[in-house]
Amino acid sequence: MSEENIINDDNIARAHDLLASLENGDEQGAREVIDDLAKIRENNLYQEVGKLTRELHDAISAFSMDDRIADIAEHDIPDARQRLNYVITRTEDAADRTLTAVEKSIPLCEDMERRAGSVLNDWKSFTQREMDVEGFRKMSSEMDGFLSDQSGGFVELKSHLNNILMAQDFQDLTGQIIKRVINLVAEVEGNLVNLIKLAGLPDHVEPHKREKVKLEGPAVPGVDSGDTVSGQDEVDDLLSSLGF
Amino acid sequence: MDKNMRILIVDDFSTMRRIIKNLLRDLGFTNTQEADDGLTALPMLQTGKFDFLVTDWNMPGMQGIDLLKAVRADEKLSSLPVLMVTAEQKKEQIVEAAQAGVNGYIVKPFTAQTLEEKLVKIFERLQG
User: Fold this and answer.
1) Cα torsion at A179, A185, A189, A192 (round to 10°)?
2) How far is A99 from chain B (nearest CA, A)?
3) Distance, CA of A183 to CA of A185 (rounded, Å)
4) Torsion of Cα atoms, B97 then B102 then B107 then B109, to 10°
5) Which of residues 46-105 of B touch A (CB under 8 A)?
6) Considering the entire predicted model, what is its pTM?
7) What is the pLDDT of residues B23-76, one digit of tens each?
8) Does the CA dihedral B42-B48-B52-B54 come out positive or negative?
9) How far apart are the C-alpha atoms of B102 and B106, rounded to whole Å?
10) What residues form DSSP beta bridges with A38?
């Protein structure tokens, strides 16, 4: 707290007055001088509080005018919300496609397993010479059908497995999106820390450094527009316009 | 198209490398190797006699675009066909890749059919 120099002629005169009043038993006069001195102190205190209030106000104004913070609130947070919703859509879709493929594959496997077991049983009784001619005819026809169905069944099974494989591509895209949101959260955290510092140290507010992100990452439908292509067809069009 | 050609797949996500590897195998290309970014890929390319490069763009260490530029700047590698498979969809980035000499550009998410089309197209053009 900066105080004015209290050694001055006025105060020396007041001190003399006070001493004189006390020695002369002038209670009224002594009280008046003490009140005067108290007022001087009070005035200093009010001025100091006023100065601090003004500094705090200026610092808060400077802080809230930092572009990056406004940008985060207006753009980045809603953008992150949409990107996270896209993560949900993609992962849901992947789970759905995987489950569909598995649900179609299981009956195929069960059918092949059942028919293989039946043919194996027949084959065993044939090798143990327990089969008559009629039984052999039945087995041959069953084996024929089983083997020809099986090759088609494996083609179908393989296509389901490929669908399951392709459904895993969500992990790459969602991983990238979530990483970006994590970076944003870290940035918000940094700003909150600055705010806390500001409350304690109003003179030391540093403007936030804005980092350039060169790579945009996966485009999200409904979020990205303008300079962004919306799919492979647009990439092909753009490249062919460049002579590709 | 030689089905035995050696292909290097570069992506920082192992899931995506596996997808591309399996798709290529389904198309008959079984001679594939993997790298997780440009820094790992470049020495492999310089010593490994690869015939084809499939690379992501956004990777830690060395980005795909820088790998492409390094390949084009290397006397021995400069004619290596490069297919970029990436989530980067900004027009200026696609233009940048084209100017750097990419042979094909696929945006994620993509289909098995797109990959096959681009491969066929790249090799048709190289032979033609």
Assistant:
1) 160
2) 18
3) 5
4) -140
5) 57-58, 63, 87-95, 98, 105
6) 0.64
7) 998 899 999 999 999 999 999 999 988 999 999 999 999 999 999 999 999 999
8) negative
9) 11
10) none
